[in-house]
Amino acid sequence: IATKTHGIEKSVWVEFIQLALEVKPLNLGQGFPDFAAPDHVRKALSEAASSESNFLLNQYTRSFGHPRLVNAISKVYSKVVGREINPMTEVLVTAGAYEALFVSIMGLVNPGDEVIIIEPFFDCYVPQVKLAGGTPVFVPLRPKKTEGVTNSGDWVLDPAELAAAFNSKTKAIVVNTPNNPLGKVYKKEELMMIADLCKKYNSVAIMDEVYEWMTYTGQEHCRMATLPGMWDRCITIGSAGKTFSVTGWKIGWAYGPAHLLKGAQVVHQHSVYTCSTPIQEAVAQGFEKELELYGTPECYLQSLAVELEEKRDMVVKLLTDAGLNPIVPEGGYFILADVRDIVNKVDIGGDLNERKDFRFVKWLSRNRKLQGIPPSAFYSPQHGDIGENYIRFCFIKASDLVFRCTD
Ligand code: PMP
Ligand code: GLN
Fold this sequence. Notes:
The structure is a single chain. This protein is of the alpha/beta class and 407 residues long. Helix content is 41%, strand content 15%. The protein contains 15 helices and 15 strands. The protein has a seven-stranded mixed beta sheet, with helices on both faces. Strands 6-12-13-15 form a four-stranded mixed beta sheet.
């Protein structure tokens, strides 16, 4: 097989989803909701799929995005970004945020280019940069505090370390806010620091904002694309799976200036070409409805975070009571809990060539029937020792299930 696939064979998802199938634990590993999506979104899909009169809704649609969906996306983001986004040239619809990340990276990065990746990162950034022939350069968020219950805001970039990672070969930096797995919501000043470096080194910010609607009290999602001078050097990525709690629909998008999206469009048109029409139609109708509901308690984009915050608080309490000091997330739907105490007390066994968190997650799945994800999967090998002290749990679950898991 092609040498470009060598060294990137492993996937934490493939490994742990296989384990979940085998052991059937309470699965708080892979992130997906265990409840139904909003009625209006589900209804829109069943109508689109079963429509006899509008049979074209089940045939190929426009390559760069179904017209109704790119129009809806442009309306939503023009509002939050504060500028008119051209639906035809400044939006690309993709097969999930995964594909948006992949085509953005493939469309920007030349062999020899460097791409800065902040740790902990969503794991696919690294193989995607490598497949594009680029070199990932890692900069970890470092905790200001590690004892007791801490907050994802305690994890920060060292300005000197970040600045030292940039150079004339830096094509892009990938920033994920709110972050998976930490739940960090970057503050405006933190994004400004990154923006200044992007301007200084002529680099692009690839913003993974799939959890954009999920921030908790006291936090506001700040968009890099709204900062001075950054629209022109930013590609921002979103996901219908996260936005409407339909992770299986696999529709995502990238928006940004036409000159930056161009490469992504070319890669998309020659690989995926076009995404599922009825699902795009349903997501479009979902956004249209949400725009009508915006500012009311029925608006899902706004109400989901309220529900999630209750779940977050409940999980924080349960983990704290269990002695697994959590890092309280400011956004997203994952939480990291500190496993150092347990791992020191219990013989978790396993293959000693593997990191502690991988061994612990396997032990917990097999022996306690509870599954999480080992966070060192979100680190480069040189910084994996930061992540291996933790386990990641997903908390976008019906409340009784979360209670059951922590008994
Ligand atoms: N980025 C992050 C940070 C994610 O957590 C996910 C979840 N899979 C993705 C991208 C990919 O999203 P999608 O399911 O829309 O491909
Ligand atoms: N984003 C989800 C998570 O982090 C799903 C990842 C995946 O299935 N590859 O758990």
